[in-house]
Amino acid sequence: MAVNIGLPEVLLILLLILLLFGAKKLPELARGMGEALKEFRRAQKDERGDDQDEGLKHGEGREKKE
Fold first, then answer.
1. Residues 10-56: pLDDT tens digits?
2. 3-state SS of the chain?
3. Is residue 17 part of a domain?
4. Which of 7, 51, 59, 62 is 20–30 Å from 21 (CA)?
5. Is position 36 within any domain?
6. For residue 45, what are the domain limits?
7. Does 49 map to a domain?
8. Are 17 and 26 in contact (CB under 8 A)?
């Protein structure tokens, strides 16, 4: 089921977050979320790179020269 979230709903959510955590805590939360996302992407990239390396070791993904 698709949920359509408009501008008023987004603003309400942001206001609730501001009230719950306070203005001083928000930059720390955003920084922590950004670092977690960066680490997740790095791990995802490393995992994809490992899979590609294994494929090359087994002869997959190489073009045959004729």
1. 999 999 999 998 989 989 999 999 999 999 999 999 988 866 655 55
2. CCCCCCHHHHHHHHHHHHHHHCCCCHHHHHHHHHHHHHHHHHHHHHHHHHHHHHHHHCCCCCCCCC
3. no
4. 7
5. yes
6. 22-58
7. yes
8. yes
CA 30 to CA 17: how far, in whole Å?
Answer: 12
Residue 60, token pair as written in the block: 């997959």
d(CA 33, CA 63): 42
Kindly state the tokens that stand for 33.
């979320």
Q: Is the pTM of this model over 0.90?
A: no
- 48 class by beta-carbon count within 10 Å (0-12 exposed, 13-18 middle, 19+ buried): exposed
What are the backbone dihedrals phi and psi of residue 35, each rounded to the nearest 5 degrees, phi first?
Answer: -65, -40
For residue 54, give both structure tokens.
């294994």
Domain count, the chain: 1
d(CA 44, CA 26): 27
